[in-house]
Amino acid sequence: MDNILSKIDGLLEKPCYLIDIFPRTVPETPDRRYFAVEEIFQRSRPELVERFCRILLKLYCYYDFLLVDGAACTEKPDPAALLERAAGDLTLLLPACGALVMLSGDDLYLRVYHPDRRLAELLAQLAGAEGLFFYRAP
Fold first, then answer.
1. What's the pTM?
2. Cα–Cα distance measured from residue 85 to residue 66, given in angstroms and rounded to the nearest whole number
3. At what angle do helices 45-60 and 117-129 cross, to 10 degrees?
4. Which 3 state secondary structure label does DSSP give 16?
5. pLDDT digits over 64-101, tens only?
6. Residues 6+ apart with CB under 8 A from 89
């Protein structure tokens, strides 16, 4: 497990991409309107989580996942377990391409660390099919 945690730590230092409701990072404004808008979107977060789940389930058809949950790891988790975990915090390693996918409990975006070109292209297509955007985080 220590090896997996150190691998996650290393991946967190790699380039990060987002699957987001916005096509790029929203600039901060003096009136802080983003936060008012975010509050509205938080009310419909269950619908957004459903979109993330559809992306992850489709992605699972192409890549093996390692579900990391605290001190436990589940190799090739049951799809229902993925859906259950997506309601809160979710950490997935994709061993075949050395990428990391993370969802935090109240985020309106899914983070993807160190995707190779093939994974990035697939995620862009899957995100677009769900009305979401895939881009490199600043």
1. 0.92
2. 13
3. 140
4. strand
5. 999 998 778 999 999 998 888 888 899 999 999 999 99
6. 102, 103, 104, 105
